[in-house]
Amino acid sequence: MTVRIAPSILSADFAHLANDLAMCEAGGADWIHVDVMDGRFVPNLTFGAKVIETVRRSCTLPIDVHLMVVEPERYFDDYAKAGANVLTVHAEAAPHLDRQLARIRELGCKAGVAINPATPLEMVREVAAQLDLLLIMTVNPGYGGQRFIEYTVDKIARAKQMLIAAGSHAVLEVDGGVTRETITRCWRAGADTFVAGNAIFTASDPRAEIGRLRAACGVSV
Ligand code: DX5
Ligand code: ZN
Q1: How many angstroms is it from 142 CA to the middle of ligand 2?
Q2: Which candidate, 199, 165, 167, 161, places its Cα nearest to that of 182?
Q3: 85-117: per-residue pLDDT in tens?
Q4: Global confidence as pTM
Q5: How many angstroms from the chain centroid is the CA of residue 204?
Q6: Quick check: CB of 9 below 6 Å from ligand 1?
Q7: How far is the CA of 35 from the centre of ligand 1 (A)?
């Protein structure tokens, strides 16, 4: 299995976004993670279609859009048009998951569901076979730079079992507090895709940090 590293531009320097994206690409990043927050589902407010479009123009990597918003279906068309490759909704904010996943796929994107640390896996079990991606939050969403919540490691392992039982080959992604230290436990538990904001953008050598995170999974760079 391969390790995917997805730098989160939430921690990037917005005055030099194109430079930061070029750095991610040169450092071997696999995806670019874009955190959309609406100030309602989460307390923080970030960006929307315009930034997704800017990322699309500035780099060639797949764009992984994490929708921390209520009524996410209002944005699917615009974000797909702006160049998103993955659209992930929160189960807590999306009561019609079946319909929403189908709509995301209709638009030509990969369909993902995220769950908060306190949300049980049961919320997504019935749609496990329809998922292209399952995102296990390892912090409470809203801000970069938070501390990894340790009890989520066990949930990652159970999520992996749930996907296998459903015959799903969905990507198993983790997001929040991922560092060279915490990534190893998540990888061993079964995650394959790792969002990292703070760990990459505050590193003394951000470009090298991408490879170091990958190496911490015991996979050669
Ligand atoms: C948190 C966001 C994350 C965030 C991760 O709400 O979903 O993607 O950028 O940042 P770090 O890696 O700094 O915890
Ligand atoms: Zn995120």
Answers
A1: 8
A2: 199
A3: 999 999 999 999 999 999 999 999 999 999 999
A4: 0.98
A5: 23
A6: no
A7: 8
